[in-house]
Amino acid sequence: MSQAVQVTQKKQTHQTHQTHQEVQRVQQVKQVQRVQQVQQVQQVQRVQQQQQHHYESSYHLSSKSSVQQQSFLSHKTSSHRLKAVVKTEKGQEVVELSPLPKRAKRTYLAMDTDKEVIGYVIPVFRADHDVVRGLMEAREDDVTEEGISYVAMRNLFVREAREAMEVKVEKKTRTTHIRESAERVELGKTMEEWSEFRKKMNPDSLTHRPEFIVKPRGQTIWEGNTVKLHCTVAGWPKPRIAWYKNNVLIDAKAHPEKYTTESNYNMHSLEIKNCDFLDTAQYCASALNIKGEVSSVATIVVKRFQECEEPGPLEPKPHGYSPEHGVTFQTTIIDKFEVAFGHEGETLSLGCTVIVYPTVKKYQPEVVWYRNSVPLKPSKWVHTHWSGERATLTLTHLNKEDEGMYTLRVNTKSGFDSYSAYVFVKDADVEVEGAPVAPLDVRCHDANKDYVVVTWKQPAVEGSSPILGYYIDKCEVGTHHWAQCNENPVKYARFPVTGLVEGRSYIFRVRAFNQEGVSRPSRVSEPVIAMDPSDRASLKAGPSAPFTGMIKFTEEDPTVGVIPGEPTDVVVTEATKSYVVLAWKPPVQRGHEGVMYYIEKSVSGSDIWQRVNTGMPVKSPRFALFDLAEGKSYSFRVRCSNSAGVGEPSASTGDVTVGDILDLPSAPGTPVAARNTDTSVVVFWSASKDVSHLVGYYIECSEVGTDIWMPCNNKPIKQTRFVCHGLITGVNYVFRVKAVNAAGYSLSSSQSDAVIVQAAISVPGKSSDVTMLEAVKDYMILSWNPPAHDGGADIRGYFVDYRTVKGGVAGKWHEMNHKALTTTTFKAEDLKENVFYQFQVRAMNMAGVSEASLPSGRLECKEWTITVPGPPVGLHVLEVRDTSAVILWEPPVFDGRTPVNGYYLDLKFESAGEEGWKAAHEKVNQVKYMKVTGLEAGASYVFRVRAQNLAGVGNPSVPIGPILAQSRPGTKEIYVDVDDDGVISMVFECADLKAGSEFVWSKNYQAMADTSRITIVTEKGKSRAIFNSPSLEDLGTYSCVVTNTDGISSSYTLTEEGLKRLLDISYDHKFPVIPFKNEMAMELLEKGRVRFWTQVEKCTADCQVEYVFNDVIITQGKKYTMNFDKSTGIIEMFMDSLEVTDEGTFTFNLVDGKAKGATSLVLIGDEFRELQKKSEFERAEWVRKQGPHFVEYLDFTVTPECDVLLKCKIGNVKAETEITWSKDCIEIADDDEDAKKIEKKDGDLTFNIGKISKHDAGVYEVFLKDDRGKDSSIFKLTDAGYQAVMNELFRVIANSASDIQVISTEHGIILQSVVTYHHEDLRVGWLHKDAKISASERVKAGVTGEQLWLKINEPTEKDKGKYAMDIFDGKDGVKRVFELSGKAWEEAFEEFQKLKAAAIAERNRARVIGGLPDVVAIQEGKSLNLTGNVWGEPVPEVSWTKNEKQLLSDDHYSLKFEHGKFASITIAAVTTTDSGKYALVVKNKYGTEAGEFTVSVYNPEDDEHKEEKKD
Question: CB–CB of 892/900 below 8 Å?
């Protein structure tokens, strides 16, 4: 559009006068020119009428800016103005205006003949709409953030470059004239108000630092709510805004689920979602440009709701109290929706019943629905309803985008309550069997005039064959015609769509394609407008000023065209096998009209440039190139063009290889599946290690025994944990995971272990009876009973909490142990003496941690003085029968003054009182278990145990029970079996096995120390304990407990007589055997050869040997070599190597007449694999030494300077042998800093780490390589390796410690030693007279630099003696001893007394410590009384002075000194003569001090006279 619009605000008389002047000038112009101008003006009017309405608001915005920015409206290029034409409304007169001087600055102020400003002119383009938009090309994200004023001002500068204007003058009535005069006055005021603000936004001459127009405001909210901070910032150049939390930069893109930042037209905001207590912080908005930086801070306080007892009427109300309604609302959600499943296209409703108590009239809670923590807004797909009691969410026409975690949140004035469940959306049935399902989450990005980027997410199911690509369809909004955008399917989940029509809106959808067919289309995207980003910003800005009057048309001469400059910053934003996308910035020099672009390409290595879009230049600063050869390298550049010509090319992008920049993600880690509910399983996995721009993960499941994989989720998730619902109870499943990004799918992970779908094990019940077993001044020994219900799994440990109790008020609970305890006793350390504590215990199994037990009583931490042992702990009962039971316990934590030498077991009926206890035996019991017999069947008993030492019997343990003396139905006992081969075994059967139950055998109720004597074989409900070689060592009581049951157990006592009887039976069952001196053994020889051998005690010449492997007879050949030396009885078999097929049992069967013998060696499982590895290692070791190899593998040493060296020795190396170091799999290059630490001398390689720290931890490796072979050595400076280095470092440090020196101070004596280097983890202990010194206020140990010291404050004779410093050296310790006695003690003690005396003198000298003012003003006739606080030891002498003369006590002055602390002076009826400088003087033998003050006496009457004289 080539017009200019001017709002007419002139008086009618001024208009007429100006018109006459113009007419007189026009008469000098030729008639030919007048005719040409008339034709041009008529054309302008026609275009104006068509497009006036569209640009009216933006024209007024620009005109208002033009009045304030008159000085910036000149153009750098000189131009000639056409003479404008002026005509009346009827168009009867056509006149020509005289031209302005060539170099005159153009003004857009409307002036009358007296040069008074009476209005302003808004220039309008004569170019068409496309050209106008082409002039405003810029990146959308930059334009949308520009201020309204800057956008209007920039558009004004562009419009100024248009060719011509015309002026239209219209006659107005006097009424119109009066109205416009009033509007003109109002306009003038508005212009003045905006003037200062416009100057701030001036981009050319008034550049200034940022300034907060509106600062962010602090807020206080409840936990779980969403808060938004706003601010408005001015400044030029446009400031960049960053948000900080407690001075830490907030990365909103990295945490989109938590933060959202927006910047629109100098208005900026930070949104914090789902706030919790940790979001309480100071948030800072920082604005920065080239002129400087400013910031503003706002504090966000997140209140947490707390459950507590009801407060009294005078107590402060809790956080949940609502002062507005005077109540505390309690919210309960019932009738909850469960995990839901739906199919695409269906309608799904979720609902809960909400009860809010108490009910308050006209009060309703706020009900909010969330999907994946994002609030849902009502739309055509989402409908919410709140009836006052029930909250309902309806999802119409489900799509996979609707899948996720749905949360109902009920907010009240007292807090909030929420409930969540997952909604799964399954794919609709495919139209073609084997075809893929529809993609999802189609979005549009980077929209321009004719270009937009469409992205989507791949579906979970590819169909019967992999997805080959995708088709993108577009549809213009308002029509129903879908057009395919790409001829060939694209593999990338991202595609640039070109050829859009500017100004039209489009929606997009995507279809997947494989060998079987095309999927259903996805859900359509949100509509997007094809337009320039700057125009989109202008539309968003809207009008900034009202229409103020008539419109006048002017026209100017067209200026000479200017060829645009070259574009800048040409870059490749995307590169795939299918296309390459270029982006650039428009040129600074654009000429006077819009620009378009030509793109050129050049093959790498060639100087020939080929224009890509010859027929159709593009309008947007983006372009997608197709049909490029994959794998080839190209360079690209861009040229600008307009009507004046084509500009110079931009700088080249450099060589760009056509191919996918984004690689496929690597496979995720092997998933781990765990039971959850009867229909769900929890799946965990480790994230893909090599992935960029991860979209998420898909989880698949398959029933064991089938090859059918089903998707568990149809919308990708980014977490590495997912609950798979909808499974069949009792079915065995395996799971796998695959990652996905825009490039496609990763390989599927390895399958998880199979898991049966059934309810998970629950957490255990509460522990009970938390008691104290022993107390010392700074620790207590606690004991408790395990939970009665273990949750279906073994208890794995316990956690102890404590709190202090002072004056009957209990404090907060704190954790005592971070690592689970494995026993029911605990030593609570670091307690305070004479302080009362309470304790509670929580049990843990594989399902989690239980609720806390009931708190213990108030337990005082003070040292016990008893001599007898404490009570035994850990009582539990096994093998409960009708008449017997086995009681087991653990020894007491406190043994007393002598060790425990026995136990007594007591029992009583449950119903009996304390007097019912009786001893279960007379003689002391030496072991920690006892079988009680003679019980009454059906009776309930309680048991307790007492420990005994030489001092006597201690207190009883915590009772256990009641225990019902009753055999479980179906209970079986252990029995002994001898099979046909003479094998002796004990067998225990259990018919009530549960999932996870195991048979646990023990000997004498303790874990078997020597497991080689018994082999445990368990099959289904039977467990067999086989005696490998029965002997007297096997005598004892064997018990078997079945875990995860109600205490099913039994025992069998093997006596010496019983063993002899069993051995006889075993012998009878066997044939005579040939005795072996040695059983079959195995050893490795050089080159990895394996030797199997045995030796018989005696044999005849007829003895024959049969060599058997896995029951197959083997003979001598290439693989086996046999030898039997009958003279020595040695039988041998050699194998060159061990292969996978050699796993099994090797047997030597001997037959010597009637006697038979056999010896076997079983090599299976881990044992075989370990032997095979050793064999392979020996062979590889022999091969390794044929080339460069390590004579000594990589190890470490610590120098006397405490530097850590990694060293190794190499052999058989040549000059061309490559030696490479690496750390954590990263090669150390020659130019790396660590390369300076490497040194090679002869055959020794060293790496000098220096002073080691945790930063140096890692895996170090050295590689040797040449044409003969390669070798490597590794040293793991982690965990155990790191600790070994530290222990050696401690040894060097400990041995470097100097002899102990003594230093005296005013506080005491210091013993110190100096080491070469000190490490923070070094443990140093001090001993006095061989006893460990406990830290106290008087005696303290510590470290300063390399000095290790012990400070003894106020030393006494007791502190004399031998002192030792024990430095940990990685094993035992290194001691440095100093004898602090004799002369050393006398000299140190004498020096200490001197220093102490000097300090005491300073501390006890006489001084005035307060009470006296600096100045006292008092009215004449009043009495003055002052008291000063005095200190001194001994009590000082006190005197008072006035003007340096001593005062004595009389009727006028009363001087007192009371209690040796308070000195007072009283002046009765003061007069003006009492004014002066007073002092309180104190003096004792340590010094003198004076406290001075000034007394001023005034007369009110004198003051009044002085005031009257002044008046």
Answer: yes
